[in-house]
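Troubleshooting log. The previous structure file for this entry was overwritten by mistake, so regenerating from the original sequence record. Sequence copied from the archived sheet and checked twice against the printout by T.R.
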Amino acid sequence: MKLLLVVTDVRFVETVRSWMGMNGSTVDWIVLGAQAERTLSDGRYDAMLLELGLPDMPATEVLRRLRSAGQDLPLVIVANAEGSRVALTEKEYSLLEALLRNKGVVVSRQRLEQIMNGHDGELASKPVEVHVHHLRRKLGARLITTVRGVGYTLGQEA
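Regenerated output below.
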């Protein structure tokens, strides 16, 4: 997975790079929203994390420019060091990563369960539905869509 971070917090970048590096993922980092469009046109990214409080322009403007340029990659918007941070458990992070990797595809509950159980070798003490509920509460109710009887997919907000 190749991830683009458009954030100002160096510690956050180091944490994400370390975490994603364990899975063989690549993380590129830029600070200015104006750089995002050019950076995305130069390389292939699977997802982007975009900070709300960028120094040069609002995140909404960055997003508007990217979408009008035809960029429709999965996106997670994060608050800066002055906003509230969202802490994800290891299992929540694994589920979110699986959904990001499969944007536009319904991921079965069974597959998500395998991902959760395989991450640390322990059986999940809570079902997938509970972790999806926690992600929705932390990141927005419309982030994950339930496809009844099939599984989950990223919603239109992602």
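Strands lie at 2-6, 26-30, 47-51, 75-78, 107-108, 144-147, 151-154. Archived copy saved in two places this time.
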